[in-house]
Amino acid sequence: MRRSAGASAELERLVAERTADLERANSQLREEIAGRERAQAALLQAQKIEALGQLVGGVAHDFNNLLMAVIGNLDLLSKKLGEDARLHRLLDGAMEGARRGATLTQRLLAFARKQELKAQATDVRSLVEDMIGLIDRSVGPMVRIELHAEDNMPVVDVDPNQLEMALLNLAVNARDAMITGGVLTIGLSEQIVDIDDQLGVQPGRYVVLSVRDTGEGMDAQTLARAVEPFFSTKGVGKGTGLGLSMVFGLAQQSGGALRLESTPSSGTTARLWLPVASETSPPSGRAPNIVTQASAPAKILFVDDDLLIAGSTVDLLEDLGHQVIEAHSAIEALRLLESGLAADLLITDHAMPGMTGIELAREVRRQYPRLPILLATGFAELEGSEVVDVARLAKPYTQAQLATEIAHLLPNGRDGF
């Protein structure tokens, strides 16, 4: 009996141990399954955002081309009007509508990470402090603004103009979430990202710009869609749904990240992670936008496969006093140069069938190294652009911007190659 009782106890102990082992194994398996499901959900969301970005980027590029024709023709028309004040008001209204359309496409391109950014070493604390007055006027008297910033913040690599727009978008979103007023807290801190961090950015030092509100907050479903373009919880006509998507695109394109934290009735916090500038990047202020005098008349080879854009831009150039030779493909432009065309400047679009503007620039640099090149495009991420040093002009542009770029490239008039 004693042996039987001892064997039974031993058996019960072994069963208990095996049961505990199985429970631990099942628990670990459940955790692994949950982790895998979270990773799959994150991957699906990333793929969804990437697909939206591709679609939005293409639409924005085409819309940019249409705006280019509108703005160019309005620019020329403004010079033909007399003293009729009503006609000038109508023209100003049309131009303002075109400018708003251009702003809309810039936000779309920012989300698609195809916006041209002019990154430079930027003192974010100074930028934020300079914007407090504008933010205060934008959010109104019912919102109190607090700034919490660490001392001796490092500079970051970012486009300061786009960062200002991003901060203003976040502030306005926060205001709209605080229907009866509240507190808007802007924070700045330095953070270290480790190699196993979940942010999806490169390990290193980052400055985190946070914007926290005391508003209504978002549920999980709304939070998951918050950065999608055109998604908005605001009423019809009260928002484009592009504010957060623009900030998201800026963060991604700058090598950082945007993270949103929110729960219903507990407000929302947006954190924008920006990489600290390398030590070789000299801190600099905002470069003044100096408009140079118009250049002397020159012979310009203009290349664009879109006849609408070509006609509008040729008119702008001829109105500036230049002689323009049109080509509607990169191959046609090369043939003109090979046939002896002595151009003073080449202006080319990028997205063209057969041979892109960058490929054309590369070939022209090889054959005619002294010929200045101006690449006019709405795209930012251009394959091969790092090996071809060319001047860039973002679409849509005005005649004044076009004249300024030409004056930079041809300060003494005709140059030749």
Average the pLDDT over all residues and give the rounded result: 79
Spatially, the strands of the biggest sheet line up as: 2-4-5-7-6
Written as H for each helix and E for each strand, in order along the chain, the element string is HHEHEEHEEHHEEEHEHEHEEH
Structural class: alpha/beta
Unreliable runs = 235-241, 280-293
- Determine Rg (CA atoms, Å): 28 Å
The 3D shape can be described as elongated
Distance between the termini: 110 Å
Largest sheet: 5 strands, mixed
Count, helices: 10
Q: How much of the sequence is in beta strands?
A: 15-25%
The portion of residues assigned to helices is 40-55%
Describe the structure.
- This protein is α/β, with parallel strands linked by helices.
- It has helices spanning 2-78, 85-111, 124-139, 160-177, 220-225, 243-253, 307-319, 330-338, 357-367, 399-409; strands at residues 120-122, 143-149, 156-158, 182-193, 204-212, 257-262, 268-275, 299-303, 323-327, 345-348, 373-377, 391-394.
- The chain is 48% helix and 17% strand.
- The radius of gyration is 28 Å and the shape is elongated.
- 34% of the residues are buried.
Brief descriptors of the model:
417 residues; five-stranded parallel beta sheet; 10 helices; 17% strand
List the helices and strands and how they pair.
Layout: H1 2-78, H2 85-111, E1 120-122, H3 124-139, E2 143-149, E3 156-158, H4 160-177, E4 182-193, E5 204-212, H5 220-225, H6 243-253, E6 257-262, E7 268-275, E8 299-303, H7 307-319, E9 323-327, H8 330-338, E10 345-348, H9 357-367, E11 373-377, E12 391-394, H10 399-409
Parallel strand pairs: 2-4, 8-9, 8-10, 10-11, 11-12
Antiparallel strand pairs: 1-3, 4-5, 5-7, 6-7
Helix pairs in contact: 1-2, 1-7, 2-6, 3-4, 4-6, 8-9
